[in-house]
Design a protein that fits this description.
The protein has helices at residues 18-21, 39-48, 68-71, 96-108, 127-136, 138-143, 158-164, 166-174, 188-201, 228-234, 298-312, 368-377; strands at 26-33, 55-60, 80-82, 88-92, 116-120, 144-154, 177-181, 207-209, 285-292, 316-323, 330-337, 340-348, 357-364. It is of the alpha/beta class. It has two domains: 26-219, 3-Layer(aba) Sandwich (Rossmann fold); 285-378, CobW-like, C-terminal domain (Hypothetical Protein Yjia, Chain: A,domain 2, 2-Layer Sandwich), CATH 3.30.1220. An eight-stranded mixed beta sheet has the order 3-4-2-5-1-6-7-8, sandwiched between helices. α7 (158-164) packs across α8 (166-174) and α11 runs antiparallel to α12. The chain is globular and about 60 Å long. The two termini are 14 Å apart.
């Protein structure tokens, strides 16, 4: 399967082991989360700690919380400030693409020295367009490698934020890693309920409770959330979904007592377990999984996915999968953000390994039935 969009993130799916395996590519991390969730605290830590890494932090200067007041000289005309621990901080006065291009140019000329980039989005930002910047522009794609999207969630205020702001739900849907902050301000039951709700919205992002933004650097960088081959090598089961999948549709009763052509549609999490908090929230950001042990017809699948992203792309936050394709003995690694999707050949299927395709979709009010039926229609 070739890429189904002309400007697809295929480059990001190439195997890599962090910056050393991709010479010249600068890893980039997107840090997102609502106001008060602890992004600034985490950033301060990254910018002031002695960790031996040279990091460029790009900050949206119109955020209500601003790092400048505490550790930067805020009245300078210079957009880029070099810090004593080797880090660099700059505020975006133009668009992100211009800032990244400028940073890369200064690095090439030796004016700046940094090994990776962290981009802090404002509390109300949708991380999607930020992520797309790394795939849509050839110059950026040839210089930077998008590593992951990190989302901070304020345990005390998350309930209200998730209920009232779609931006907060989007940030959860996009995440490769979720950090729960301020868990000491609420009781364990409330934290557990929140964790369950977040898991339901985005089952593929690990969650970690953090205190005052104190996160080990190793859990912030080189997570390879956009690097599927490496992800497979590290964790071959990264797409396997737990016994009861986090899917919130009561209307669908697939697979009970009849075989659905060798694949199953996953069942609503709350049907089989007693979580008193589970049914209170029917969030518009949901995830579901498609599995099949029959191979895909590459041309049919490409046509179907191409049509789907044209219609539903803005609502498709993250989607990725490992596919069994007719005509190749290698796994096809597939991923997308909004309308951009790409695929890459992965390792060969092992002789005894069951060739099962698995796709995970995370999006806003996606038409689950249309997608599942359409994918079924693409099987060889």
């Amino acid at each position: 399967m070739s890429t189904a969009a002309s400007n697809a993130p295929a480059a990001s799916a190439a195997p890599a082991e962090g910056p050393s395996a991709a010479p010249g590519l600068i890893p980039a991390t997107i840090l997102t989360g609502f106001l008060g969730s602890g992004k600034t605290t985490l950033l301060k830590r990254v910018l002031t700690e002695t960790h031996g890494q040279k990091i460029a932090v790009i900050e949206n200067e119109f955020g209500e919380e601003n790092i400048d007041n505490d550790i930067l000289v805020s009245d300078t005309q210079e957009q880029i400030i070099q810090l004593s621990n080797g880090c660099v901080c700059c505020t975006i006065r133009e668009d992100l693409r211009t800032t990244l291009t400028d940073l890369a140019r200064r690095r090439r000329t030796g004016e700046l020295d940094f090994e990776r980039v962290v981009i802090e989005t404002t509390g109300l930002a949708d991380p999607g367009p930020v992520a797309q910047t790394f795939f849509m522009d050839d110059e950026i794609a040839e210089t930077f490698l998008l590593d992951s999207i990190l989302t901070l969630v304020d345990a005390k205020h998350a309930g209200d934020q998730l209920d009232t702001r779609q931006e907060a739900r989007r940030q959860v849907g996009f995440a490769d890693q979720i950090f729960l902050s301020k868990t000491d301000l609420v009781d364990d039951a409330a934290v557990d309920a929140l964790a369950h709700r977040l898991k339901h919205m985005n089952p593929r992002a690990p969650q970690r409770r953090v205190h005052f933004g104190e996160v080990p650097i190793s859990e912030v960088f080189d997570l390879r959330g956009f690097n599927l081959n490496a992800k497979l090598e590290i964790d071959p089961e990264f797409l396997s979904v737990e016994e009861h999948d986090h899917d919130h549709d009561h209307d669908h009763d697939h697979g009970h007592g009849h075989d659905h052509h060798g694949h199953d549609h996953d069942h609503e999490h709350g049907e089989h377990c007693n979580h008193p908090h589970h049914h209170h929230h029917d969030d518009d950001v949901k995830s579901f999984v498609f599995r099949s042990d029959r191979p895909f017809n590459p041309a049919k699948l490409e046509d179907f996915l191409g049509a789907i992203v044209q219609v539903y792309g803005p609502k498709m936050l993250r989607y990725k999968g490992v596919l069994n394709m007719k005509g190749t003995d290698k796994k096809v690694i597939f991923q997308g953000v909004h309308q951009l999707m790409g695929s890459d050949l992965g390792p060969k299927w092992a002789p005894e390994e069951p060739r099962i395709s698995k796709l995970v979709f995370i999006g806003i009010d996606l038409p689950k039935d249309i997608l599942l039926q359409g994918l079924e229609g693409c099987l060889a």
